[in-house]
Amino acid sequence: MKLAIMGAMPEEIAPILEKIGTYTTTEFAGNRYYEATYNNVDLVIAYSKIGKVFSTLTAATMIEHFGAQKLLFSGVAGAISSELKVGDLIVATKLSQHDLDITAFGHPFGYVPEGKVFVETDAQLLALSKIVASEMGLHVKEGIIATGDQFVANEERKNWIGSTFGADALEMEGGSVAVVCDALHVPFFILRAISDAADMDASFSFDAFLESSAKISAEFVMKMVEKLG
Ligand code: SAH
How high is the pLDDT of residue 229? Predict the structure, then answer.
């Protein structure tokens, strides 16, 4: 089985590469892809660069070019739910694109014809994450993640995303990775550790907690990998 582990930024995959130790590096379509075998699982690891377009390219490349059969995303997000504090983990049950808007034609936010507002994540990977969470003694929230090409640092926008999509957290890649995996029938899992509250202090909080939160998410994902071996 070949498993993809993806992040958006270097900080999100650095702890994973460190844990794996040795890997080969391949340049493809403007990104570096790292390949290794870990616990009998063949891995392809990459960070996409930020946003929906780059993450679409990377997810599709990992599946179509590198042959990944499952995909795990590890990274950081802004909290919408007041239950979520910096360092807390959220696993997506489903994802939407909060900036996709052809509502002028009477469609709901996040919808285009032949698409869907929400893309659901894989039930088996979700179930596995529950086992890992209990073994690690961690509380991991399950919820809806909304994705868009915006760093949200605005209470009003954050609340709108929360009420429009019922979202608990927001970020910039999960929804597009979900579309790719869904279309290609690849089971996928999106995990995020909170780096900020998507409010007026978000950029400061993000800078302060990117590394520590990315590490929390990466550690959890590596436990999932160990279970998949
Ligand atoms: N500081 C970076 C930009 C980070 S963009 C730079 O200057 O290069 C934010 C990244 O973290 C995205 O990959 C996104 O998925 C996630 N993220 C964390 N908090 C977010 C928020 N409040 N809004 C949107 N994305 C957020």
Answer: 87
- For the chain (length 229 residues), average pLDDT per consecutive 10? 98 98 97 96 98 99 98 99 98 98 98 98 98 97 98 98 98 99 98 98 98 98 96
Q: Which of the following is catalytic: 18, 42, 196, 199? A: 196
Of 41, 62, 181, 190, nearest to 125 (Cα)?
190
**CA–CA separation, 121 and 42 (whole Å):** 22
Task: State the pTM of this model.
Answer: 0.98
Residue ID of nearest Cα to ligand 1 atom 25: 171
From the CB of 152, is ligand 1 less than 6 Å away?
yes
Atom 5 in ligand 1: which residue has the minimum CA distance? 151
Number of domains in the chain: 1
Instruction: State residue 93's pLDDT score.
Output: 98
Q: How far apart are CA 149 and CA 144, in angstroms?
A: 17
Answer yes or no: 182 catalytic. Answer: no
Nearest protein Cα to ligand 1, atom 1? 207
CATH of the domain at 87: 3.40.50.1580
Domain that holds residue 142: 2-228
Helix (H) or strand (E) holding 25: strand 24-28
- CB 2 within 8 Å of CB 67: yes
